[in-house]
Amino acid sequence: MKRAKKIISIAMAAVMMSVMVSSCGNKDADNAIQGNSNSEYLIAPEMTELTLFSMNDTRLDDTEMWQKIAEMTNIKIKTVSSSANSDADTAMNVMLMSGDIPDLIFSTNMKKFATEYGPDGAFVPIDELISDETPNLKKQLERKEISSFITNYDGHIYYMCGVNPDTISSGWFIRQDWLDKLNLKAPETPEEFYQVMKAFKEQDPNGNGQKDEIPYLNRFGTVDDLTFIFNATPEWSVDENGKVYYGPTRPEFKTAYENMAKWYKEGLIDTEIYTRGAKSRDKLFGDNVGGIVHDWFASTAQFNDILAEDVPNFKLTAFAPPNVGHKEYTRRDVAITQGCAIGANSKNKEYAIKLLDFLFSETGSRLMNFGIEGEQYDLVDGKPVFKDSVIHGDKTAIQILTELGACALVYEQDFAYEEQWMTEEAKKGADLYIDNGYLAPKFPALSYSEDEYKKFNEIMTNVDTFRSERCQQWIFGSADVTATFDSYLEELNKLGLEEATKIQQAAYDRYMSE
Length: 514
Ligand code: CA
Description:
globular, alpha/beta, binds calcium ion
């Protein structure tokens, strides 16, 4: 509680200062942009400036998009954070500790800050600002998967999150040109997956006379995707009887690691998988040595175009999950950790909440997803279609939209936005997964009481650290999976996993009965 009082009292002093500063700033804002008093989207009667903390590269203030939004709503954004400090989380901590909290606070990690500092009094409980005047936010919060994710342990909501479409993100891709060359077909079972990797390793599909092929690679520094082949999961899950379990305790998880350790030993998994990093695909496909990935449809299929000249015949094709029932475990999170909070002492919190509401309206959503009509997109049969300059411009579509000020703060992402720059191969892949119903249900985001939250986090921090260390030892062969699995389970229980499971079960049961 000491920290809470400190934040609040510092904040009060800071607010008095910022009121003096911003009353000068407002005049400039009035001169710069004339609001349209006839706009049906008006939020404030006069042009009003909302201060924003955001460490994003694009400063929204001067973008064409946010000038347009200012004209429509009479709300102008003024970024008060400096991006000189490159670590966004550190900058956020410094800002919170200074007590000088702006009207709007944006972070890719907002859930963490909202959970920790919301109850301390840093942010407005936005649940108290939601009304019939904010119908779009109200509608979003009626979705259980969203409200459960952002409701804090004290029952309040301290930020609004970004919202994703409830659909697929990633899938399996394989070198079709290599399969063709070796007269193989895409694997449909774990055993076939192993045999194809072995053939890639031993039969020189890139034709350079060396066994330099790296059958499986991953740019996220993890082998989690390989566990899916055995219907295992590294996360929390629930069985058909509603019993919650921690995936890494299950027999399927053991089987997965027994096989993966063998694959690693035989050189079928990138030996630098944990360290090669974000450029793994660019590097290993570019060098014509990479064979199989589990990755995002749009960006992975793009390699077929990117490498068309440098790697003759290069062709990646999506294939069905090679496990029992062809289940895919990477359904997107609908609610995300990125989002916006409102400063507890904001004089304009009613305007701030209405601005967030506007971003979730049909009009706001179209601006955030597609840009400005006539500039980035045209309406064709009532649907926004990107102009060719966006799809085939000098920059990627995401870059163009971000620099414009779209895709900013919080909004609901429209899958049609992403689909439009997917190549035919990417669409074919996504359709294969969607049409065949390969998506496994996702374990819901649960909410906890304060005691549960603290206990659960304390236990799971230790559990996750131990588990990931042990998994790496298994892959590298410094511990044998079969011989050490039981002692590994004992250690997990010593770290409190049973208690964590009880907390999860109670939270899950509450979620299901709501
Ligand atoms: Ca070779």
